[in-house]
Amino acid sequence: MSLEAARAWLAQDPDPETRDELAQRIASAESGDADALAAIADAFDGRLQFGTAGLRGELGAGPNRMNRVLVAQATAGFAAFLVEREREPSIVVGYDGRTSSDVFARDVAAIMAGAGVRATLLPAAMPTPVLAFAVRHLGASAGVMVTASHNPPRDNGYKVYLGGEDEGSQIVPPVDAEIARRIEAVADATTVDAMPRGDVAIAGDDVRLAYVRATAAIAGVPATEPPVVVYSAMHGVGSATVRAVVEAAGFPAFVEVPEQAEPDGAFPTVAFPNPEEPGAMDLAYATADAAHADLVLVNDPDADRLSVAVPSPDRPGGWRQLTGNEIGLLLGWDAARAAHGHGALAASIVSSPGLQVIAEAHGMAFATTATGFKWISRVPDLVYGYEEALGYLVNPGTVRDKDGISSLVRVLTLANDLHARGSSLADELIALAAEFGGFASGQVSLRVTDRSRIPAIVARLKESPPSELAGSAVVAADDLALPEHGAIGDILRLTLADGARVMIRPSGTEPKVKVYVDAVSEQGSPLQRIQAAQERVAALEEAMRPLLA
User: Fold this and answer.
1) Please, what's the largest Cα pairwise distance for the chain?
2) Which of 162, 308, 372, 402 has the lowest tally of Cβ within 10 angstroms?
3) Active-site residue list
4) pTM, whole model, 2 decimals?
């Protein structure tokens, strides 16, 4: 069956590279090559599932890969949804610097136009936040961003936003299922060459410039003697827009990591283009050492996430990468002070419980959401929201998604304010512990090659949760997929007698099982509180590792 499906796919594939690759694989399989048969089965006995995160997967031929046929089918199905939903629908399409992103984006825009959706294509590879901004700025019905964010180099993806009442947020159920149903109908009944193409408008640079102005507007005043900042775009598309925003805000130019400044879909200097991965920040640290920098700021390749590192002479290499929760709490405290009790703060269920403590101390509403900014962005009266995976929504009036550039501006503003007072982000974390308690977090991840292992591991832990971890009894083991626990996602939450918390969930974008560990201490000095919480997190991480095997 796989060979038959592969031949049918080959007949409609418009991409010469994947067509040649598939033709060779079919020929090898027909001659009895077992490896070729297995590769075809892997690519054709299944299909990348369209969901709230859109599509994401490895490049290659077949319905279980990212390619021009799959993108065309997804686009025709999404177009059918938009045409049924609105009288005169419109869409804006963006793309990053990954392999084939520009090709996929042009296909998306042309097929949308051919289906009766007025299509505008951004003029160059740009950050995901610019596309999310453009949906609202242009008053579009929808947006598509071709990106796989921080996934491995051979991946690409298709991210969907809706305008109108959705205000440029990512899609949520049941919309994802409605679109998926139409995509499957297209795949069953239509070939790519039968899909009409239409004329596409190319946006001017005014869209990006409008984003730059809106983002620069949330900056504070640069210090008289500002900190020296090193920046890396990690081979992604952030550099040009970040430079423009920093200049418009009046801050001095950053020292850039030259080897990582330009878009390169091969990501030659990193094993994984994700600031969270070990070694990914090493070039930035080396550049910072040479520049005697005070701060390191790194975006992921599509610039919707931000990593921050501060000098730490006691650490190997002399730098400490702040966790997503540390940055999230600093930005949350900053937002709460500016809000003067108005509006709401929000964080995903796997993020630090510290933001709720901050919100309550400032008389603000607080919302815990399911994972993903599609939920965080929809919190009523939102002032600020974050997720521990280096994602922050600091400017909901401009972008209803995580935004690594606007969050960079707020971190830079905070760092400048502190620098002017002879302080730093590291000092501010100590002040936060003095005010609210010492919060610490950690994460254990298991990356797999066989994705079927992921649900099996999570299901096993739900069925037989541990009774104790690192010397503390597990007093509750809650399956958060169940209605009585909010049906918030496929997450197992373990609550410990000492107040610590452990969450286990499958990653929504990568072949990983993720474990999130949080602890808090309110005893002793601020530094003692932080140290006690960190020691507790480290012990719990060690306790969880063998449970994932």
Assistant:
1) 73
2) 372
3) 149
4) 0.94
